[in-house]
Amino acid sequence: MSTTTPASTDVQTAAMAELRQIVGPSGWSTDADILAIHATDWTGARFASTPLLLKPASAHEVSQIVGTCRAAGLKIVPQGGNTSLAGGSVPTGDGIEIVVNLSRMNRVREIDTFNDTMTVDAGCILSSLQEEAERVSRLFPLRLASQGSCQIGGNIATNAGGTNVVRYGNTRDLVLGLEVVLPDGRILSGLRGLRKDNTGYDLKQLFIGSEGTLGIITGAVLKLFPRPTAIGTAICALPDLASALDVLSLCKEKTGGQVTAFELMPRQGLELVFKHFPAQRFPLAKLHDWQLLIEFSSSEDEAYQQERIEAVLSEAFENGWIVDAAIATSIDQSRAFWGLREGLAQADMMEGALVSGDVSVPLSAVPDFIEQCSAEVLALIPEGRVVAFGHLGDGNIHYGLLQPEKMTAAEFLVHEPSVKEVIYRHALSAGGSTSAEHGLGSLKNEAVKTYRGDVDHDLMVAIKAAIDPHWMFNPGKVLKRDNA
Amino acid sequence: MSTTTPASTDVQTAAMAELRQIVGPSGWSTDADILAIHATDWTGARFASTPLLLKPASAHEVSQIVGTCRAAGLKIVPQGGNTSLAGGSVPTGDGIEIVVNLSRMNRVREIDTFNDTMTVDAGCILSSLQEEAERVSRLFPLRLASQGSCQIGGNIATNAGGTNVVRYGNTRDLVLGLEVVLPDGRILSGLRGLRKDNTGYDLKQLFIGSEGTLGIITGAVLKLFPRPTAIGTAICALPDLASALDVLSLCKEKTGGQVTAFELMPRQGLELVFKHFPAQRFPLAKLHDWQLLIEFSSSEDEAYQQERIEAVLSEAFENGWIVDAAIATSIDQSRAFWGLREGLAQADMMEGALVSGDVSVPLSAVPDFIEQCSAEVLALIPEGRVVAFGHLGDGNIHYGLLQPEKMTAAEFLVHEPSVKEVIYRHALSAGGSTSAEHGLGSLKNEAVKTYRGDVDHDLMVAIKAAIDPHWMFNPGKVLKRDNA
User: Which of A278, B249, B336, B363 has the most other CB atoms within 10 Å of its CB?
Assistant: First the structure.
């Protein structure tokens, strides 16, 4: 892939000097090594270079940056923790792209425990916000693998999901207000912490999940929740995959929706965990084809909660929906249960090359999706190993195919496009999504046209053109301008 | 106000014949009495007339209607149950406006209890959907006064709130997918029931709360929730208004967010309830300046829940945050508690003319807002009677001023604009909203420009112009074209 930058005009060179002045001496870099880091995403992918990294310290500076870039025909790549898995936060080679990194805007502006809100800069690291909430006896429930380095602005721009969606929803559900710098340089000041507000179009919704293509998020008002005091974790073995749905319904019904995680763990995946992490222990007598990891959380007293979990699992057992179960009796044991779940992705990576799709389907369609998709990918690569695990509670299955033991990675990866085509086709025909969590970025910017269809595509392009007529913000992401 | 319709051209007359054909004999009316009903909203306001009422039976028919209207330069007023309180669902006199009423599209298309979703036509009556959910042991939590006649399409178009927002959010939070007919006549087919989907802009968000100005909603996928089995209701007396916030925080913390309603009831309001409904009984020894009605719901066993409510109220009492409390011990008693709350609005209306604002503020700002706003409105009308009650749990206070006993309604209503100005100004300076629940409709279509400011206004106009360039859908609502 090209990593060259188009030559800049005199006007653009002058503009870049102006940009450096806007952010001051500690707010920019042209150091080649630093620029390379900020032009390379989490997956190591690099598509193009940037001549200038800016780290503004305020929404006002971002606004000035946008004005200068606009006048000079420069493009802007908004960047948070740069943990995109879809090439969403790095230059792609469409014009001269200035990276505007929000990391210096990392202040918690206000915490209001009566309103249960937290007003924060976009550059705050997710884990630091979890800690801030904890400090005032509240929960900020967004939880994801990259939480130690991703920034809340990026989480909002990509509508991040994670492990607690079954209970608390995606990032979109956690945002009450946004401050956004628009492509015309004006600041949309929407940092309202209101639970009810129907004064015209809900503009913040446009920017949530738009991956920086419509505006640069500089601040947000986030919802806080009561911090659960009792957390219960169980591992259950299923007689078959379809029973998982009955177990979930029962758990939700009997606990009033206190299910905070509902994760699927397959035999094949766990066998790889035990192979690569031999210290891991399995709490049931034997491995079954399908296991669930279930977490409940509440403010009930622990004994009462434990009794309820036992009662619901007993009922599931009597109904024949589970065949074995273990409930964690200590925090250490709960961590060990989660260690199995977290080991699944790592063990896959250690085992070899993986072709996977970030798909979701309606929950009721999960068993058929896995069965039918597996039949077709295994017809394609008979000795491939299906790995299907993850957030069953919200229909978000990490579905992939691991390289056959008898193939090299390179031999296997030749089939990547055809395997992905099968995965996406089955997800779509089940009424699902071809990008459940990671967004489209630059790697999937054909997806809207291919999978969502012309009506969706044309409407998205109309919105993009109305708000960012010069396609200045995050070029090459979400939509392909060539298609517009 | 004018109730005349501009004369139609020959092209338009021909188009109206075509429209009647699209919907067939049982799908239209030109009967003057029927047209008058559909041109008059819930408040009795009537601004203009319509020459034709259409009741399409499918999204396809709606699409054809839009195509015909577009070609002939006719405007469309989408209409559900016509229960708008803001002049949002009736013609306003901007061109020739055809009312497209969705009531014939009233089918539940699918219920998926594993996915916890319900796919419905836009014309389904809200209460019928509550019953459908109940039938499959689920909860559809949207609850509002007009639920027996309002339609879900209208609820979605106005992002309706109601009494359960503190627990379940507004209508926006209850929608997973939408089917929408666009101003170009195409159908946006987004009836996906997915909990995670990040394939480009979340287009449905544009239409939720846009009051029919961007698209005609014809179908929706709605979220279902576990049905609570234990419901506890309490009335508490407060030492002062500020303590209400402490009580709410404590209730949320100690029950893990199981507060489903948190309503404020003032002395003055309850005195009017007892005056106009003498059969009503008050469960505490005496009336205090401020009372709370609190409802908890869960799937716990009833005895356990009752103990928890007693424990949390005891703690509030020990902390000096409440001075008296009664917990309902039967469903009848719970209904009686709610009767007091529901009587507040009715008693106000029976007592005389009321000038009120549909405002919300951050919860932490509620006490100061009420105090400061009251000082100023009472300086204006010294013998006016402040009524401030309602959904404190989401900062949505029904704040109004009741006519002084010594004034006639007419004398009092002369002051309506200045009283409203005070209410809105105080709501805004507290970081609040001038339309919490009812939307802008045609009565508040200056509000975006006046209260939200130019950046918000211009962005809304850009979106409107991009999606509905001829301002064909629901003219005169949300935005004033003259301002654009």
Answer: B363
